[in-house]
Fold:
Amino acid sequence: MRVLLTLGLVATLVAGMAAQGTAELKVGDMAPDFTLPGTDGKTHKLSDYRGKQAVVIAWFPRAFTTGCTIECKSLAENGDKIRRYNVAYFMASVDPLEENIKFAKATSVKLGEKIVEKKEADFPMLSDPDKSVAKAYGVLNERGIASRWTFYVDRNGRIAAIDKMVRPETSAEDMVAKLGELKVATR
Structure:
């Protein structure tokens, strides 16, 4: 009886999540399409990359915070290694575009009493202020910000990998290793 109740509860929760459109994405699923503004002044649409190149979307919680600054620094300092692959890569948050533009251009960020020096982001940062894309990717958490997850989308638009244990300080190195592991074409 207890097992049946537990199974019933799980089935109800899963059905409720699916009904809300918050079913968790898995490897092999089609990545939800998006159209988001970038800090480079362009509008980026995932479907524009389909059939051309892989895409990496590194969701981050909030601009000008410790982990996000360290992750941005890692990607900016190691962009040459990432660009060896035929991949478009982005950081994305639910911050307004203006905030992400300031963050992308910042070469130093004050974190408490400490100042962290970083390079200007040499890749687009995407803004999803209405949070619709973050919801579609399942990264919007209970605090209303994105969880730090990275999605690897193959050339066909399918999710090839999801990293939910992103380490900000080695984000670029980990991304390069994952791109190699996924056998993404090099340039």
User: Anything to note?
Assistant: Residues 163 and 183 are 16 Å apart (CA to CA). The helical segments are 2-19, 66-77, 79-82, 97-105, 132-137, 171-181. DSSP finds six helices and nine strands in the chain.
